[in-house]
Structure formats: C-alpha cells, structure tokens
Design a protein that fits this description.
The complex is a heterodimer of chains A (about 160) and B (about 290). Chain A is α+β, with helices and mostly antiparallel strands. Chain A contains four helices and five strands. Classes of the chains: A alpha+beta (about 160), B alpha/beta (about 290).
Amino acid sequence: MTHPGEEAHHGGESADAGWALETSEAARSYPVRTEADLLTVRHAVRDATEELGFSLVDQTRVVTAASELVRNAYVHGGGGTLFIDPLRQARGVGIRLVVTDEGPGIEDARQAIVDGFTTGSGLGHGLGGARRLMHTFEVHSVPGKGTMVTAVRWTDR
Amino acid sequence: MNRSEASARSILTGVLERQQTAIAERWVQVQMERGEVGGGLAEDELREEADALVAALSSGLAGDLPVERVVAQHRQLHDAVTDLSMRRARAGTSPTATSLAVLSLKEALLACVAEESLDTRGSLAVARVVNRLVDAAGALSFETYVEGREEIIRRQNRQLMELSTPVVQLWREILAVPLIGNLDTARSQVVMENLLEAIQEHEAAVAIIDITGVPTVDTSVAQHLMQTVKAVRLMGADCVISGIRPGIAQTIVQLGIDLSGIQTRATLADALETAMGLTGQRAPYAPEHP
C-alpha cells in the first residue's frame, strides 16, 4: 500500500542549502545541541508515537530511528534540529521525522546508507538502520551546507 | 550622599532600632496574609528569619557603608538574605514568591515609618532609601534562589549517576548490572569501570548486564554494550546480556547490529541459569516458565 501525496502540506521556508522544509503546522521542533538533548528528543518522540497510537514495538522502532538520526546530526553535523510531525490523514495515521543540520554534509548519500559505512568510530549502521526502521526515508545533502533527513512511519502497516 | 538622604537614613536607622520587633512581626503578618509562604515554612520559622534579617538590616544601616552597597557588603545582612532564599529554594517555594516575600519587607518598613510624624518631603526621602535597600535585597534573593536550585540539580545528577549503576553479586562468581535508563557515553564509562573493578574484587567468572530498564537500544548503546563485553572478556570473564524485550530484539535486527558473538537472554532469570551452567554450578531450582 502506498500513500500518494504524502509530500507537502504547506511549503515551509526554503533553507539555505537549497531544499524546502516540508512540515505541517502541527509539527514541533526540538533543538539538538548537547548530548542531553538526545534524551529530551527521545522522550518527545516516544510521547508523540504513543499519542498517535503506535504499537509498543513500533514506538521502539520510531524512537530508535529518531535516536540514530539526531545522533548523526549531533556528532557529524555539529548539532541540528528535529521536527516531529504527526500525520493524521484520511488514509492513515503516521509520524514524520525531519532532522536538519548545517554540518559538512554527506558526499554520497547513497553510500552513507549502506551498512558498515562510517566516517567516524561508530558501527556504521545508523543511517541504513534508521532507513529500515521507517517506511519512507529520504536524504538530502549538500556538501558544505548541511543535511536533511526525512523519514515517515505509518501505524497501519 | 546629599543631606536629605543622610537625614532619611538616620531616621530609618532610628525607626529600625526602636521598632525592630514590631517591623519583623509586621513583615511576617504581610507574608502570611499574602499567602506567599507555602512549601512547609511554619510561622515561627518565618519569625526567626524576619528577626534575623531586620536585626541585620538595622546594624547594616547603622554602619557607614553607602546605602546601595549595604546589602551586598554587610556580611550579616548578606548572609541573612541568602539564608532566607536558600531555605525557600530547598522548601520548594517558587522564585516569584521568594523575591516577593523579600520585597514585602518594604510594606512593613513603610508602615512603621508612617507612624513617625514626618512631612511629605521627609517621608519621600525615607521611602527612597527603603526602596533601594529592599530592591537590592530582592535581587540578591533571586540570584541566591537560582543558585540554590542549580546546586540541588547538580547534586541530584551526581546521585543519579551513582545510584543508577550498581553492580550486585547474584551468586558465587556471578555478578549482575541492572541498567536502568539512558545509556550515554558518560554512564557506560561508569558502568564499565564499576563492573571491571567488581569482577576483580569478587573474582567473578560471569557478568550479567541486564538491559530491561533501558528504553532505547540504538547503534550507539549497542556499541557501548559491545565494548563493555569486550573489556569483560579481556579480564577472562564471560558476559551475558539479559532483558532483551521483543521490540528491542526486532529493532536490533533491523538496525543490522550483530550481537551473535554475545550470549543474550530474554530475562535475568534465564541469564542466571546460563551463568550457573557456565560456572559449573547447579541452580537449586530451575526458574518456572508459565
């Protein structure tokens, strides 16, 4: 089952890096500047998924994916922002996570989501793992400008 | 310092000397009426505070420090204000209520000054002095209050760090670390240190790391766990990870983390059974599975 038209709800302001931030008005943003923010963010995502009626296992999936994405933004992007966007649409309920940073960007986004790829000392499963935990997953990155990752998971599949 | 201020100050000093008890009493009444006390401060505690602060104010004003520096530099007065604020911060009074309580001293002072028969100009000059004094006290009180709260937060953080990483001996040669909460870099470092030291101290052969209380296992947490396991093995002990819940198991697989080289069990009871087997001990009874 696909969810056509899940693209934009209203055109957010265009970021410097050359992509548009696509979040609905219900989206809330959380800054990621310190390691303690990672914890705050996980709690926020956990609460949001619980409120949207995700099953316990799916809550764990979304929280873990969010954790990977914000950690990437924190470690590689020098900090960033997470947008938690609850999706309540005719065809289903879901959650969209948008993580942006203004770090060095990813040279080859296709390569970065391959398991084992790492530039740091991590396991190299973060981005690829997060992709498998979510239903849709997009990476926009402009080297030298920053990275934006958008990921969606629906409750019903 | 001009003449009207000097005379206002001496009038106020006189009032404070003569009516110390009455001012303190009135201040307590104002605070009680406004209901700004809260947080378990009894009336006699308030009275004690008020007596100390008014006495300090009286002696500070009688000295020769300029009005704007009396609160900051008169030792006794400074301490009286910080004591009051610290006590309220600990009692859980809100910062607004705390500085309002200090500021309400103005009302008590002015009410007692009003009983002196002064002309308008004189009263105004005294009121100015009262204002500057008590505003300075209010500001100091707010600052102290915030510091007090931050100190509490720092202390709780340290306590939490210590509390949350206990290493317990479950059986002869078998240790367990029940992890609860978030496992970040700093905590996993503490866990590892505590565990390795305990292994040496107890001459343990098996360490069980229980992650039942860890809400999220992402690649970073997994990496910390794997490093701990490696370190334990370097010391010649075995390591079992227990408390893998269904959601965590699925997430770990989807993340692509390979834990196959590590012994994992669903529950702490299973892990203990495994550990008894590894150390060649026999469990007195097997855990019941419903």
